[in-house]
Specification:
The complex is a heterodimer of chains A (about 300) and B (about 280).
Chain A: E1 4-6, E2 9-11, E3 15-17, H1 26-34, E4 39-41, E5 58-61, E6 64-67, H2 76-89, E7 94-98, H3 103-114, E8 120-124, H4 141-153, E9 159-162, H5 171-179, E10 184-187, E11 191-194, E12 196-197, E13 202-203, E14 209-213, H6 218-231, E15 236-239, H7 245-254, E16 258-261, H8 263-268, H9 272-286
Parallel strand pairs in A: 3-4, 3-16, 4-7, 7-8, 8-9, 9-10, 10-15, 15-16
Antiparallel strand pairs in A: 1-2, 5-6, 6-14, 11-14, 12-13
Helix pairs in contact in A: 1-2, 3-4, 4-5, 5-6, 6-7, 7-9
Chain B: H1 3-8, E1 22-33, E2 36-42, E3 52-57, E4 61-65, E5 69-71, E6 74-80, H2 84-89, E7 97-104, E8 116-122, H3 130-138, E9 142-149, H4 158-164, E10 171-174, E11 181-182, H5 185-198, E12 204-208, H6 211-223, E13 227-231, E14 247-248, E15 251-252, E16 259-261, H7 262-267
Parallel strand pairs in B: 8-9, 8-12, 9-10, 10-11, 12-13
Antiparallel strand pairs in B: 1-2, 1-7, 2-6, 3-4, 3-7, 5-6, 13-16, 14-15
Chain lengths: ~300, ~280
Amino acid sequence: MINSKIFDINFNNPLVLASGILGVHAEYFKTLEKNNVGGITTKSISLDPRKGHKNPIMFNDNHGFMNAVGLSNAGIDKSIEMIKHAKQIVKTPIIASIFGGNVEEFGELAKLISEAKPDIIEANISCPNVKKEFKLFGANAEDAAAITNVVKNNTKIPVVIKLTPNVTDIKPIAKSVEQAGADGITAINTLAGMRIDINAKMPILTNKFGGLSGKGIFPVAIKNVYEIYKTVNIPIIGTGGITTGKDAIEMLMAGASLLGVGTAVYYEGVKVFTKINLEIEEWMTNNGYSNIKEIIGVAHE
Amino acid sequence: MNNNTIKNNFIKQDITQQDIPYTTKVVEVIKHNENFVTVWLEGEIKIKPGQFIMVWFPNVEEKPFTITCIKENKFSFTAMKRGPFTKALFELKVGDLLGWRGPYGNTFTIDENVRNVCIVAGGIGMAAVCLLYKQLKNDNKNVKLIYGAKCSDGLIFKDLINNICVNSDACFCTDDGSEGDKAFTTELLEKSLSESLSNEKFDIVYTCGPEIMMKKVVELCEKYNVECEVSLERYMGCGFGICGGCSINHKLVCIDGPVFNSKELKELKDFGNHVCKCNKE
């Protein structure tokens, strides 16, 4: 009932672990699989290993969850080994998230990571926390298309592009990545934000600025996914604040085919995947749906 | 706004929001020697033995620490000099601000039916079992404490231990024999375990210290068929189960631990391979 075939890949359920949450160690993927995750996105991978920002890198209060991890990762070589290992020990589809400093790096990353045979490649062109080092390619349609193009040309694996909500209009960017050959779009990345400790009189995050996620950004995510769905014909991984089965249904109605879940793991732990799946099934049963595909984009009809 | 707030130019934040650093004042800094420092922070804390907090040093970093002592409206954590963060702690002055959030992690198991227990602490690992030792003593358990370090300079918790229990029967040891027995903690543990066979057997052994020591403690406990709980350390980013930085095999030290029992450790094949990156930070 909640299983589906997207990008010609079988998903047991629509809940994909969003990039940046726990997607670091292959063996932990077993724990995620046991907890009914539908797909696992790795933490974003660069050519060289990166230490990322110093702590504090994350915190939460009633205004929302903030992070500026700074794309820490083990680099492409170790990440290839990690994904290969993961493919041996879990059956869940794996989405390899990649990011580079320029078009050529994205091409090289796509070529190299394909060797590990991830099920999908996600090009992260939307991290708000590394502006000093990396151009925000997701901020304009031309850059977004150029990255899409080079990634597609370097792999046969389906490619999704992760977009940022920190733009004036996401529609032309979504259109341009579709035209450049993207198989899908992940939306949204975090919203740029900042918090200051009033006693220390300084920003809390070492990076000063961070990305806001969690329940508070759900309406922003719904609006962006709704607009992208209107603009393109490729599947969308709707991400941003999904915490309950009702949120999941709403995101499907906005037009998402798969659902990214990230900060909900902070709220409720890894058991949140099982909970949301059960709530989706319950809602579908009560409302006469037998196939999740029937719900996708119904808010547009 | 009350007068106190204006005078101190300090805003009391809502302490119930524990996943964002709560800034508070340093009320005392005790430099035990050039390698160990204890920092006392103002305020109340509700924390159980085994749990930890994330301490934010503005402009420096944020690191996990266990609490070593709790008194009226103040509490302390103790650090060994390792890198920039712990070095900076030595420069703190009374009135400086640190932030903290938490507490995080699980706790040591204290079964009310248990009578005879043993704690094996190595070096700064004693910091993770101070509150445990105090609670076990308060609960009137028979506690055997084996506390060792490389040399006498490392036995910084000796006074605190004697404070917790004047008639402490703690066994101190050092690798070089500069204080207490010239022995490893594990040697003293094996002696105690073999003696306890003819006497009253330990119901549980708790341990924290270098991972190679804890591995040996677990092996000894297995040999003598005694339950064991260890407190693990890994590099930590968030402390609440999101960043994945502290994973050990299929578990996370921050939320599945830091305390693991012998049964759980059997499934964690990386246990025993971790070496702290002293002075390499």
